[in-house]
Amino acid sequence: MIVKWRKSSHTGGANDNQCVELGRLDPGAGIGVRDSKDPDGGHLVLSGAQFASVIKQIKQDSAR
Prior knowledge:
It comes from Actinomadura coerulea. This is DUF397 domain-containing protein. This protein is α+β, with helices and mostly antiparallel strands. It has one domain (about 5-60). The chain is about 25% helix and about 25% strand. It has 1 helix and 4 strands.
């Protein structure tokens, strides 16, 4: 499967490599997360529930 990786719209732009990228993996396989500075260095795989939990925690931390 070819994964289409994308950066957050909250980064500094298309040339900003100081962020993570997300990729939708095969159906049921989860969400891929990788370092934009090292795209060939592998990626972390999170289930949909794990990814939702990470996003929830980030939002809670940023509200403080």
